[in-house]
């Protein structure tokens, strides 16, 4: 298949089979849950924005983001930095689901404890007791569309609750912002603070960020020397990640064509592939490649690259957070919502999403 054939969208109308009984039952449950949420919202919830000052003694803050996707967790970093800068005496704790992401969040200023939600009943009860003992002054749901986040906020016992107001918001909030669909997912969380908190004034950050510690940077330096073996002493290095989930992933032959185009556009550049695991097959056995499990070490390794390119994925956002000029490739999602947020980061989509143009773009940026 040629690149031109790859970029063409099939516009033929296909017939869809009737939904299975399982799909019908799931849809029925979703509809009933939605009706139940709206009934609760009308009785107790928060359907309109509510901008209020924070209590002057707000010092203990809990952010609830029950999600395992790396990109979604990195989307918290502008909001967390905004909170820390605006409330410098506060300690910000979080509840997430992936232990692998704890060190990334704890590298941020103001962040204290990062709790992990376990799936076992005893684990959940133990976490709830621990959280309630902290007597949080403020709990935040940065998404507005997660029933798990809302339930955790409700059970936290926090005396102030901040989130998005909408017709399905059944949780009584003390501070609420209207939901906007016109901004990047990460920036909506910053807007939540600015629109729902009247005082203090919010200092807003608009880029992703992580700050690996010295141990992570030293480990990344050793991996860099082993992987590149002196190839990058004077040559520019372009890192790339060729995987993504579902329709976001570009096919293998696209990346092979990109490597050929990249060698023509920037012959001196060294290409290094980031792999999702040790057992993953590289795009080219001739290129250096590496799999790094610890995310802080991976971020520190990426930070040494001159450029990074990837489809919409967690590593793309991690590269942007590490400060690497990143080119994001979008064929199934919108850069408006998911672009890499960082210094000198850009996105390519539509007709611009070809191996040749991507290679020329990267070469011009070196």
From TrEMBL:
Tree of life domain: Bacteria
GO cellular component terms, semicolon-separated: cytosol
InterPro entries associated with the record: Glyco_trans_9 (IPR002201), LPS_LOS_Heptosyltrfase (IPR051199)
Pfam annotation, one family: Glyco_transf_9
Molecular function GO terms recorded: ADP-heptose-lipopolysaccharide heptosyltransferase activity
CDD domains given in the database record: GT9_LPS_heptosyltransferase
Sorted UniProt keywords: Glycosyltransferase, Transferase
Name listed for the protein in its UniProt record: Glycosyl transferase family 9
Species for this entry: Salinisphaera japonica YTM-1
